[in-house]
Design a protein that fits this description.
The complex is a heterodimer of chains A (488) and B (89). Chain A folds into two domains: 160 residues, Cytidine Deaminase, domain 2 (3-Layer(aba) Sandwich), CATH 3.40.140.10; 235 residues, Rossmann fold. Chain A is of the alpha/beta class. Chain B has 89 residues and is an alpha+beta fold. Chain B has two helices and seven strands; from the N terminus they run H-E-E-E-H-E-E-E-E. In chain B, the strands form two sheets. Chain B has a five-stranded mixed beta sheet with strand order 2-1-7-4-5. Chain B has a two-stranded antiparallel sheet with strand order 3-6. Classes of the chains: A alpha/beta (488), B alpha+beta (89). At the A-B interface, helix 5, strand 15, strand 16 and strand 18 of A face strand 5 of B. Strand 18 of chain A pairs parallel with strand 5 of chain B, so a sheet runs across the interface. The complex binds zinc ion (2 copies). One zinc ion binds next to loops of chain A. The site of one zinc ion (ZN) has 5 residues of chain A, from loops. Chain B: Pfam families: Multi_ubiq.
Amino acid sequence: MVTQSMTLPASLHVPPALAEQLFSHLFPGDGDEHGAVIGATVVETQRGTRFLARRLYLAKDGVDYVPGKRGYRMLTAAFIRDRIKDCEREGLAYFAVHCHGGTDHVDFSRDDLASHERGYPALLDNLEHHPVGGLVFARNAAAGDIWLQDGSRVELNATVFHGARRRVFQPAPAPKPAADPTYDRQSRLFGDRGQAVLASQKVGIVGVGGAGSLVNEYLARLGVGHLVVVDPDRIELSNVPRVAGSHRRDALPWLTKPERPQFLRALGRWLATPKVRVAQRVARQANPEIGFDAIRGDVTLDTVAASLTDCDYVFLAADSMQARLVVNALVHQYLIPAVQVGAKVQLDKAGTVTDVFSVVRPLTPGLSCLWCNELIKPAKLQEEALTPEQRRQQRYVDDVDVHAPSVITLNAVAAAYAVDNYLMSTVGLRATDYRERWTRFHPLTSTAFDRVIHEIPRSDQSCPECGSNGRLSAGGQRRLPVKSTAGV
Amino acid sequence: MSSTLEQQVEAHGRTVEIRVNKKPVEVKGPRVTGLEIKQAAIAQGVKIEVDFILSEELPSGETKVIGNGDVVTVTKHSKFTAIADDDNS
Ligand SMILES: [Zn+2]
Ligand SMILES: [Zn+2]
């Protein structure tokens, strides 16, 4: 694997647990400089190069991080050598990290830059296939000087810290953007800067049925700049009561109504409007300039899943376990936060309603995981992998072809709450101590106390999906759990 | 080998009445796995399935997901909820 050139801009992405460790090491309150090394997976996307922090090596003060010969402090050669070897073994880019004083502005000193010139050519020779570089942090700012194997040198545009509160560090605060009168009312809440952040976002939506179609409309109207919408299905008449923006004519009722012959109904279903086209129509009505990728396909196919790897956030509003598996992997492997939304009307064998609820489950890289919480069931994955015919033969499983109850208002509660979560985190309105929770809304529950449930998800460091030795920050080094389209 | 009554009870487990979806359920406590709680609840007529998601209700008002293999210490005040793991969007 050779990384010879890079797509710009370059950004570094840091999962929450690693960010916390890094910050308490760099800023313990003594006002001094401290050092570390980050090993990062390199992911090339159309929107630029993403470095995914996978390893953090803290340099011990006085042992690994010592008084410098030319500058104030330096990492010892032995520490650097061992970390280069670690990065080489794991196929990671190498970044030396230290901190400066200050808050919102940071830049390398002349000594820092001179040390890069002296030292980095040798590090590049040792690492052979990946970039090396230096990062300098202030409390709210970060800059990076990245050296590529081809001899070119690029700056890091942004460092993104993921978590319930997303933070983006740059060398200096971005200039104030121009106000757009369209968004006057909402930018009174989150500012022109917040509005500009939304315009720069690329957000994926997996499934644009009941819940996803609402998410699509909310995001488009909020001014999110680019949506990637994935759904294999076409509109049926029974979707119309809950798919935002759908018309009866999208379902071609004159062909698909029950009294038509079988072949006409099949033709009608085949000609009906794809759900992603309805979503596109809705999004364009809200914002004619929106970037919109309408992908009529299944997220479990490699090419479809790959179209989500440069998103800033993903909404998972599809019912299948396989979709859960793929999106959960994207979250941890590519450091793309996501949220699973849905609603459930549960019936017993006699058809009596036993429970009704809407769910919102934020998925944070390395922290909250559908796999750790047993929301991905191996048995159900296998069952979904069967053809409909095979499934019919295995009658012991519930008939998946029978449509479960689904109601727009239940989906709307989940969709609005999930988009609200995304919004508050993205525009930076959250308090530092915000604690993320999974949430369920039970409208029929007798006591008010139990109508909204805040749930602490499990997290398991040894999890193969979200653990630091599993998919976390692995990027393209791992295959996503998808089916190959090659040769199809 | 002699042992106190308490040790014997500990070894054999004592029956603790907990709540699962507000219904009383007797389990052999005090230490019990998530799966054992669901199995006991099903055996005692609570309308759930073994693959439902189990959560323990905490004094803070929040709930905490309990995996099948997770061991929890239960008391007569312990309350759990179990809900279906799939949903329909
Ligand atoms: Zn410096
Ligand atoms: Zn996990």
